[in-house]
Design a protein that fits this description.
By secondary structure, the protein is of the alpha+beta class. The protein has two domains: about 1-35; about 45-135, no CATH class. Helix content is about 55%, strand content about 25%. The protein contains three helices and six strands. It has helices at about 5-35, 90-105, 110-135, and strands at about 40, 45, 50-55, 60-65, 70-75, 80-85. The chain has a four-stranded antiparallel beta sheet. The protein has a two-stranded antiparallel ribbon with strand order 1-2. It is flat and about 100 Å long.
Length: about 140
């Protein structure tokens, strides 16, 4: 092979590789978009919701999930998912709805800050009254 023939063939190989990698990146991006859209949502409503998760260790956890209105507790390990129980007790379901309602109405940052300032100022007033009482 002569040197003048080497450069054009090297340029062809590099350009073909760049096009191939570019196509792979575009396909991966589109695949992620498609998979993300179809993740258990029908008519804008989620079919499966993770209500709570407790991680027990590496690759193992217990999750409280809602599947089409049924509340289930599942155990998840690295090799399988097991149904531990289904919550059907009406008292437990009401308690769970109360907890979800409280979490749904989470306070804004400003509300949290106001509460923190009020509690701090009341503690300072209490401490200053104790100090004044000791001085008298």
């Amino acid at each position: 092979m002569n040197s003048p023939e080497l450069f054009p063939s090297l340029l062809k190989i590099i350009s073909a590789l760049a096009v191939t990698v570019g196509v792979m990146i575009v396909v991966a991006y589109l695949f992620k978009k498609i998979v993300k859209k179809g993740g258990g949502v029908i008519n804008g409503r989620e079919l499966i919701k993770i209500l709570s998760a407790k991680y027990l260790g590496p690759k193992s956890s217990i999750m409280l999930i809602d599947v089409l209105g049924k509340i289930m507790v599942v155990g998840i390990s690295s090799s399988k998912i097991s149904l531990l129980t289904e919550i059907v007790d009406s008292e437990s379901l009401e308690q769970l709805k109360d907890v979800q309602g409280q979490e749904g109405k989470s306070a804004s940052f400003s509300d949290c800050l106001k509460g923190l300032l009020k509690s701090s100022s009341s503690k300072l007033k209490a401490q200053s009254s104790k100090i004044e009482g000791q001085d008298a």
